[in-house]
Structure formats: C-alpha cells, structure tokens
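Supplementary Methods, section 5.1.

A reviewer requested that the exact input to the structure prediction be made available. We therefore reproduce it here, unchanged from the version used in the analyses.
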Amino acid sequence: MNKVFLIGRLTRDPELRYTSDNTATARFSLAVDRNYSNQNGEREADFINIVVFGKQAENVQKYLTKGSQVAIDGRIQTGSYEKDGVRRYTTDVIAQSVQFLDTRSSREGGVSNDDITPSSFSDGPSTTDVKNDPFADFGSSIEINDDELPF
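The structure derived from this sequence is encoded token-by-token as follows.
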C-alpha cells in the first residue's frame, strides 16, 4: 500500500502548467515539521515536493500562496531522468486530495471566520423571549421510571 498523509506549509507559490492534453498540473514544496528537536533544541522540517492534477491543481494555484497550511492525502512516486549525462532521481507526492487549513485573510492578518461572532451582525444586544414555553404544543408530559433507563 502506497499512502501518504502530510500537514505542512507551502515553501513557495504553486507553479501551474498544462500538459499537451490540456491537463492542469501544479507543483509546490511542503515544509513538514518533524516530531522531535535536534541537539540544539530546534525543530527541523522535511521539504517534500507535491504534484496535483486537474481542477484541484487550478484551485491550488488560485487560492494558495507561500505559507499556506494544507493537508495532503496522496501517494509517493519515484522517477529518474538524465541531465548532462548524469542520472538524477526524484521523489514526489502525488496529491489525490488537498485540504486548505487556513484562509488567505488569516495569513495576511485579516479577519478570519473564527473572529466572527453572531454579535458582529447586530446593532444592539440581542434578546430572547423566554416567557413562551417552546414545548407547550407537544402534549402532556411523559413519566419515566428510573428502572426504564438503560444506564
């Protein structure tokens, strides 16, 4: 089984290209923190190349920038090519799903959805009328003995 789950931040803006059959392809690098610190007490990160295809690639290029936090679900793919007579090897994660974990406004110091509360939309204090019983139309009360409870 070849399955990869990663959470990290983009190290650069995604690069969008199209194949000869007009399929969108986006490439970017993801910085993923390691679970432990080095001898100096600093957290290190791995930098992993990500490739995503299709409509998802276009969305990645449109909505993500350097520093965006994402979750990736994909698979590892290795390959090789020859350049200047030297064989080079590659390892990429082919993303099958890219989940955006933050918003552009939260990265830029703007208002995020977490900062919005219902009171943000009203001009004054809201009040609730508790004089009316919301359960009045449900009929008579139900009597339950403690012996009938499953816990």
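The CA atoms of residues 46 and 96 lie 20 Å apart. These observations are discussed further in the main text.
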